[in-house]
Specification:
There is one protein chain. By secondary structure, this protein is an all-alpha fold. The protein has one domain. Helices cover 43% and strands 0% of the residues. The longest helix is centred in the middle third of the chain and has 15 residues. The chain is globular. The model has no long low-confidence stretch (mean pLDDT 94).
């Protein structure tokens, strides 16, 4: 069974994990200020956001963890009616706030599709390596 890094609990990725790199709760004056210089609706800015802050946020994970996250995202993207805008909703009671809320992202599904596309490029070797293994042995 694959466990969380540094903790001995089963690793079950959640879609919310993907946007953790742009979570600014209690970091509005630091990370928030940096992120707000970007326009998440402008393609070149969005790609930089995804590469610098979202994909790089997974560097501490193993290739197996990244594979499971990628696989989970793939499955959700295949659900045509899935509402990706809910992933951008802030909940200060749960210590969750992103740099941009659901009203500021013109195409939430497109944002996640870009994450998928760029992660498939960045993690190409890791995804291939994990796909060759028997995931039931993790």
């Amino acid at each position: 069974m694959l466990t969380h890094p540094y903790v001995d609990t089963p690793y079950e990725p959640q879609l919310s994990y993907i946007l953790a790199g742009i979570s600014i709760y209690d970091r509005e004056e630091t990370l928030g200020e940096v992120l707000w210089t970007y326009n998440p609706n402008k393609q070149e800015d969005r790609e930089e956001i995804i590469r610098k802050f979202i994909i790089s946020d997974f560097d501490y994970l193993t290739y197996r963890h990244r594979f499971l996250i990628f696989k989970m995202l793939d499955e959700i993207l295949h659900q045509p009616d899935f509402d990706f805008s809910t992933q951008f909703e802030s909940d200060y009671d749960e210590y969750h706030a992103l740099a941009w809320d659901e009203t500021e992202i013109d195409d939430p599904r497109g944002f996640f599709e870009d994450i998928y596309r760029l992660a498939s490029e960045e993690w190409k070797d890791d995804l291939h390596k994990a796909s060759l293994e028997d995931q039931s042995t993790w």
